[in-house]
Structure to design on (284 residues):
């Protein structure tokens, strides 16, 4: 298990931002998602987010929804997600699961049987056993996350919570105090893959997040939602004192595979090319 903070520290030592890449597990299928994520690692991703396909994805835009639904229709389950985590984490790359809270809360529930451990505890243990670094929880805030925080702290798992342009200073302070690994700053309001984030638009949120983080925490800030090109990644990672410590890309990777439904090899080549472009951007 490797915390994402190690990847951010390495990127900082190289005077650049980290590249964080996302794909849903089981898209285009389980083995295909493993191959795709490994291709992204080889082409320059510093941290990997693996999406847990869910039927009510309130933050996901149409591109990621289409991929997640394909995985669900194929019967992908949480155990498959953990298998993907194990395969990708074995590369030595910090690997997190991005998931809504319901699948975690209900994990391992068996009708008619009682469990001494909560779903959060069981999920945290199985995630740690698979080599996962932690969770990104878009619909869970720290004040409603005591079970997850306790389970994660016991196993040294990353707890990545989100802040948004609409977040109050009080909420940002609470979120950064509870986070470990990094904090996820949504570059725009709205769902993924529909609006482009800009440095000018997200700079105030980055500055507020850094200013309101606990003293001495040095918590990295990753910016996501709406990043799709190397030029945009470079723009968000500018070295002006308030640039993003990490650039998070999801919909652009998913769209690349969706554009090659009948030629997996071509899809992997296109995915690698996009990763290389984005990796060049965070190094620009």
């Amino acid at each position: 298990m490797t915390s994402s903070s190690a990847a951010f520290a390495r990127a900082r030592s190289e005077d650049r931002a980290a590249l964080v890449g996302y794909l849903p597990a089981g898209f285009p299928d389980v083995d295909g998602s493993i191959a795709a994520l490994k291709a992204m690692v080889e082409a320059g991703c510093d941290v990997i987010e693996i999406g847990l396909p869910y039927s009510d994805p309130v933050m996901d835009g149409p591109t990621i929804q289409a991929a997640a639904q394909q995985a669900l229709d194929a019967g992908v389950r949480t155990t498959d997600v953990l298998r993907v985590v194990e395969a990708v984490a074995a590369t030595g790359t910090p690997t997190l699961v991005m998931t809504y809270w319901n699948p975690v809360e209900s994990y391992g529930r068996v009708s008619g049987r009682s469990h001494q451990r909560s779903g959060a505890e069981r999920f945290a243990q199985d995630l740690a056993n698979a080599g996962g670094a932690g969770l990104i929880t878009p619909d869970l805030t720290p004040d409603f996350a005591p079970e997850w925080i306790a389970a994660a702290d016991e196993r040294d798992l990353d707890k990545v919570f989100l802040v948004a342009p609409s977040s109050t200073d009080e909420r940002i302070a609470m979120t950064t105090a509870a986070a470990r690994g990094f904090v996820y700053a949504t570059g725009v309001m709205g769902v993924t893959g529909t609006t482009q984030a800009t440095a000018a638009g997200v700079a105030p949120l980055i500055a507020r997040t850094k200013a309101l983080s606990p003293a001495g925490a040095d918590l990295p800030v990753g910016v996501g939602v709406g990043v799709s090109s190397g030029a945009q990644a470079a723009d968000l990672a500018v070295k002006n004192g308030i640039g993003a410590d990490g650039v998070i890309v999801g919909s652009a990777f998913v769209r690349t595979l969706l554009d090659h439904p009948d030629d997996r090899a071509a899809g992997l080549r296109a995915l690698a090319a996009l990763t290389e472009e984005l990796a060049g951007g965070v190094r620009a």
